[in-house]
Design goal:
By secondary structure, the protein is mainly alpha-helical. The protein folds into two domains: 72 residues, no CATH class; 154 residues, no CATH class. The protein is built from twelve helices and two strands, in the order αββααααααααααα. Strands 1-2 form a two-stranded antiparallel ribbon.
Length: 268
Amino acid sequence: MKNWKNHILVLILVIISEMIGIVKYKVGPGTIVLLPMLYALIFGVLLTPKFLKIVNDKDMKDAGTLTTVSLMLLMARYGTMIGPTLPKIIQSSPALILQEFGNIGTVFFGVPLAVMLGLKRETIGAAHSIAREPNVALISDVYGLEGAEGRGVMGVYICGTVFGTIFFGILASFCAAYLPLHPYSLAMASGVGSASMMTAAVGSLSAMYPDMKDTLAAFGAASNMLSGLDGLYMSLWISLPLTEWLYKRFYRIKYGVEAPKVNPSEEA
C-alpha cells in the first residue's frame, strides 16, 4: 500500500487507457472490441524488467498483493447490478448452475493436448480447470505447489493472468458476431470464476449491445459468483479425479507404459 511508485504508474496507465477509449474493428458481420483494460494490461507488461525496466521485481510483487483487493471492489460494484435484474437471473438459475459442468470440457481438451506435448504430472495441475485462485489453492492442498502438479497449475494461472483477459474480450466479440447465441447466454458463459476475464468479455458484449449492458453485467457477475462457489467442489469431486483418470489413459497411449505416480525427473 505504501509503494507510491506503483500507485502513480497505475494512475497514469488508467488515464492513458481511458483516453484511448473503446476501439472497434468491423470484421465481416461482427465487431472486435478493444477495451481500455486491454491497453492497460499491455502497457503494464511493457513496464516490467523484461522490457522497459520501469518497475522492478519488488514493485511487481507489491502490485500483486493488491490484485485481490481491486477485484473485491469490482465484484462489489457488480453486486449492486444483480439486484435490479434478480427476477431474470432466477428464471435462468438452472442454466447458471448447470453451466459449471461445461467447464469440465477443459479436462477433455487439455489432458490429451498436454500429454501429447510432453507434459507429465504437470498435466494434472494445468488441465483440471482454468486455474484461477481457488484451483491454485486446491492443487496446493492436494499435491503441494513445489511438485509437478503445482508447476502445472501455476503455469496456466500466469498465462491466464497475462493472456486470458485479451482472449476473453476478443472471443466474446467473435461469438456474438458469428454464433446464433443470445447475448445473455454469452454473458453467463463469461463467468468462469475469473473476475478480470469476465469483465473483459462482458465489456465487449456491452459495447456491442449497449441497451443490454446492465443486464449483461448482472448475468456475468452472477455466473462468476456461482462459478466461484461451486467451481471448487466441481474441481475437487469431478474434474480432478477425471483428470487423473484421463492422464493415465493418455500416458499409456503415448508412452506404452503405466504412468508413474511422480514426475520421473523428480524420482530419487
